[in-house]
Amino acid sequence: MTRDGQAVGAVGKSRPRWRPDKLRHQREAHGLTLEGAGEQLREVARAAGLTVPAANFQTLWQHEQGEVYPGPHYRRAYCLLYRATEPELGFRNALPDEATKLKFTASSEPQNGAHVLAVERALHQLAPSAEDADGLGVQQRILDAWKRRYTGGDPNRPTLMMVGGYAGSGKSEFARFVSQLTGWPVLDKDPTTRPLVERLLVEMGSEPNDRHTDLYREKVRPLEYQCLLETAYANVGCAISVLSAPFIAETTDPRWMRRLINRCEARGVTVAVVWIQCDLDTMHEYISFRSAARDSWKLQNWDTYAAGINLELRPVVPHLVVDNRLGSAISLTDQVRQVFGTVFQ
Fold first, then answer.
1. Is 186 helix (H, G, I), strand (E, B) or coil?
2. Contact 227, 168 (CB under 8 A)
3. Which is nearest to 281 in space by CA: 289, 269, 273?
4. b/e map 20-45, b = 16+ CB within 10 Å
5. Are 319 and 307 in contact (CB under 8 A)?
6. At residue 111, does pLDDT exceed 60?
7. What span, in angstroms and rounded, lies between the C-alpha atoms of 3 and 115?
8. Positive or negative CA dihedral for 253, 256, 259, 264?
9. Residue pLDDT, tens place only, 57-80
């Protein structure tokens, strides 16, 4: 595992207008000592199901002095603790049209006005990529599923939501967020197929964490996605909506997407494609932080890997885009989780 701040220090210091003094101002405004802030950071992270930071007073002091840029788990915990966004805490500049004021009132009622506002604001991150993408329809489908999760029944057809994007873009976080709202199951390629893939790679003479060779791309990867889709079909065939992640090559292949849509339409299932937009620095930071063995090659050969990333790549069918550059969308979903509290437990 990488040490706190080690993998992201250089990235953080290169970000424009990092204002570490704002953290100190927030802490003092809340009447917290460094030790007290550390205790509360650990508490809010644990309650939100995030990676719990060590949050000792030396590390927090380094954050406030600008010596170490906070890693993603620290930034998310800071935002939850101070009920603020990353721009408000001085971590970075705000993206165009990014919401920076989140005034929510906690409540034990799952469907009161504040909770609906929180969900609707988060769902505004689902922006249509073009006029032919049914953004409002997908937003309403998610909202309806959430509202009816506790009363029973959903008037919509089953939905196969495909979440695509590059490694470290925030696909899994966004998938879990929508699943918590709707109750739709999450089918994620890595935990679903990893044991079989690793054994297959070894049997074929490669190493278990190979995700970059022609052997993996041509012989193994197609089987991964075949397993993932067959599992999804088994769910939608029972009128259960499904959230799947991730898809990159598939959503950019017109023939592949047409076959999928036709098969789903024949079963009365709506296909919704969501693309997670992200930047290279944030993806590198997320990948470094999660320290997964399958990412070793990417990190050791980052320039080579990054050269193959097309930040303008988008699905070939009507789709929605979640702007998670600089982690902005995932930070907002954290705020919603905190507002709901036990509603998501």
1. strand
2. no
3. 289
4. bebbbebbeeeebebeebbebbbebb
5. no
6. no
7. 36
8. negative
9. 999 999 999 999 999 999 999 999
- pTM score, whole prediction: 0.70
Contact 306, 76 (CB under 8 A): no
The answer to whether residues 181 and 142 touch, using CB atoms and an 8 Å cutoff, is yes
Q: What is the pLDDT of residue 7?
A: 37
- Indicate the helix (H) or strand (E) that contains 187: strand 186-188
C-beta separation of 42 from 88 below 8 A: no
Cis peptide before 246 (omega within 30 of 0): yes
Whether 328 and 99 have beta carbons less than 8 Å apart is answered as no
Residues in the chain: 345
Residue 227: other Cβ atoms inside 10 A: 16
- What whole-number distance in Å separates Cα of residue 248 and Cα of residue 107? 39
Tell me 173's DSSP state.
H
- Using H for helix, E for strand and C for coil, what is the string for 61-104? HHHHHCCCCCCHHHHHHHHHHHCCCCCCCCCCCCCCCCCCCCCC
> Alpha-carbon distance 217 to 200, whole Å?
13
pLDDT (0 to 100) of residue 3: 39
